[in-house]
């Protein structure tokens, strides 16, 4: 699949409204989850698979240098346009390239791989490359949609999904190869040779994305409700919307 194919995939996703308003709330929750692990001084960060830069805009002020990589040309261009409009103290570079062809001649203090690993056919290959790009004391942040989210388990009981870890037709069209649970994500990262220092869930998820969006639009729920879900995620990480690990290179 070349860059043109990725552009086509992006167009198809927009037609299906794959990205929901709830996903945009999740970006803020991810930042709050990861922020305690950021370096004390603004340093260099790499975000792989930045899409259109929504999360990038949240982290750009925390780093003196930010490198963003996106394989779809249209999404990369949107990211460039978006980041150029932000008043920032950081230097931002947007690279349009597929991960397997990506050449980076530097190391980074933080590397972000958010809702990307499930799209990678051979994840261990990418994780091995990331090890080379991570600075000796750097932090690697990985997040994926959670197979065991409460909403997904409800869908299984409704017989809408065959099993929590199943890849749905919509996910397959979006380019998913697998659906991770917290244990399988941790195993994937451990098997690549990283040392996990923290793992958990981000935002308890009682409803599907489209249901949350509809409830939000109709004012059935509000920001306070989602804030409660975010806090409840600390209690029930296995039922959250996303799962995450923070990892380092082994000593």
From TrEMBL:
The answer, when asked if Oxidoreductase is one of the entry's keywords, is no
Q: Which InterPro entries does the protein's record reference? A: SAM-dependent_MTases_sf
Q: Which domain of life is it from?
A: Bacteria
Q: Which UniProt keywords apply?
A: Methyltransferase, Transferase
Q: Which SUPFAM superfamilies match?
A: S-adenosyl-L-methionine-dependent methyltransferases (SSF53335)
List the signal peptide residues. Answer: none
Q: Name one GO biological process term.
A: methylation
Pfam families according to UniProt: Methyltransf_23
Please indicate if the UniProt record lists Transferase as a keyword.
yes
Recorded GO MF terms: methyltransferase activity
The record's listing under Gene3D superfamilies reads:
Vaccinia Virus protein VP39
PANTHER family, from UniProt?
Answer: METHYLTRANSFERASE TYPE 11, TRANS-ACONITATE 2-METHYLTRANSFERASE-RELATED
Protein name per its UniProtKB record: Class I SAM-dependent methyltransferase
Organism of origin is Zooshikella harenae
The major lineage groups are:
Bacteria, Pseudomonadati, Pseudomonadota, Gammaproteobacteria, Oceanospirillales
């Amino acid at each position: 699949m070349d860059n043109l194919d990725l552009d086509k995939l992006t167009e198809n996703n927009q037609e299906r409204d794959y990205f929901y308003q709830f996903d945009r709330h999740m970006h803020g929750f991810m930042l709050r989850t990861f922020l305690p692990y950021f370096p004390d001084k603004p340093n260099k960060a790499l975000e792989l698979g930045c899409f259109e830069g929504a999360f990038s805009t949240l982290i750009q002020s925390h780093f003196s240098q930010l490198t963003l990589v996106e394989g779809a040309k249209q999404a990369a261009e949107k990211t460039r346009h978006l980041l150029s409009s932000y008043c920032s103290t950081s230097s931002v570079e947007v690279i349009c390239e597929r991960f397997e062809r990506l050449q980076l001649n530097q190391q980074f203090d933080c590397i972000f791989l958010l809702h990307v690993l499930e799209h990678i056919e051979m994840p261990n290959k990418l994780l091995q490359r990331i090890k080379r790009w991570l600075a000796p004391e750097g932090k690697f942040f990985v997040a994926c949609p959670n197979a065991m989210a409460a909403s997904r388990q409800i869908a299984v009981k409704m017989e809408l999904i065959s099993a929590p870890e199943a890849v749905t037709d919509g996910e397959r069209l979006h380019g998913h190869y697998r659906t991770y649970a917290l244990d399988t994500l941790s195993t994937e990262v451990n098997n690549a040779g990283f040392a996990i220092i923290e793992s958990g869930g981000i935002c308890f998820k009682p409803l599907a994305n489209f249901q949350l969006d509809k409830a939000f639009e109709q004012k059935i729920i509000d920001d306070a409700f989602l804030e409660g879900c975010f806090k409840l995620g600390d209690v029930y990480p296995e039922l959250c919307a996303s799962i995450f690990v923070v990892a380092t290179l082994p000593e």
